[in-house]
Amino acid sequence: MTTMPGTFSSQVILVAGGTGGLGRAVSLAFLQAGATVLATYRSAPELQALQLSAGEHVARLEGHAIDVLDEASLGRFMADVLARHGRLDGLVNAVGGYAAGAPLWEMDATALDKMLAVNLRSGYCLARAVLPAMLAQRRGAIVNVAAMAAVNHLGAAAAYVASKAAAVALIDSLAVDLKGTGVRANSILPSVIDTEANRKAMPGAAYASWPKPEEIAEVILFLCSDAARLINGASIPV
After folding, report:
1. Which of 25, 38, 128, 140 is the most exposed, fewest CB within 10 Å of its CB?
2. pLDDT for 177-220, tens place per residue?
3. Are β-strands 61-64 and 90-93 bridged in parallel, bridged antiparallel, or unpaired?
4. Would you say the pTM of this structure is higher than 0.70?
5. Is 41 a residue of the active site?
């Protein structure tokens, strides 16, 4: 599936973590499809790299240095978005973290809190921030990036696995609440993504078998498009 240019013309899409390994590909794909993209970021160099890659589409790219775990900041951000754009059509949550490499009893005691914050609370806070606008306009799509580890539970990764499984459950429950509203929520479950960070973390791995960020971005764009208007509450392996 390849999204045609113009598919998201006039739409406003929030990509949380929009400058990271996966988020960057998602932001660029939406820009190429005609959307205005609001990308949250923590690294200024990553934002600059995204702006350069956006090329002729850069005028429709906004970078926002927001802590997505801070509901007050998110509330102010959404008020500004609605004041300037009058709408929000999609949310992609590509914020996440990974902690693994030891059995549960050897993990740092703070590992679970960290994983729950970035992998679960991020999606919870973002959904709470965007849903009032989406429900008012009776349309919108939320895609949360979980992981295959949410269902295929790895060893030596208890905190990470638990946080991703909880994230899937969160979106499943939200999707039930959203039935009949015109707003949809789905999860995607990537395996190890072929990013620079993952290659550095796993030297010598079989990179060729890993999904590329651009391939995953295509699935996300489909889930946010009108072609997927009947898909709600799905957890799609990628």
Report:
1. 128
2. 999 999 999 999 999 888 887 778 778 888 888 889 999 999 99
3. unpaired
4. yes
5. no
Residue 174, exposed/middle/buried by CB under 10 A (0-12, 13-18, 19+)? buried
Q: Which residue has the tokens 């998602």?
A: 26
Interhelix angle 71-85/122-137, nearest 10 degrees: 30
Q: Which of 41, 98, 124, 160 is catalytic?
A: 160
Say if CB 30 and CB 13 are below 8 A apart: yes
- Please give the CATH number for the structural domain made up of 12-237: 3.40.50.720
232: left (phi over 0), alpha (psi -120 to 50) or beta: beta
Tell me how far CA of residue 131 lies from CA of 106, 135, 155, 174, in angstroms.
Answer: 39, 6, 35, 10
Q: Which of 152, 52, 177, 40 is nearest to 96 (CA)?
A: 40
Distances in Å between the Cα of 26 and the Cα atoms of 9, 23, 38 are 16, 5, 11
> Residue 1 has which token pair?
């599936």
Q: Where along the chain do its domains lie? A: 12-237
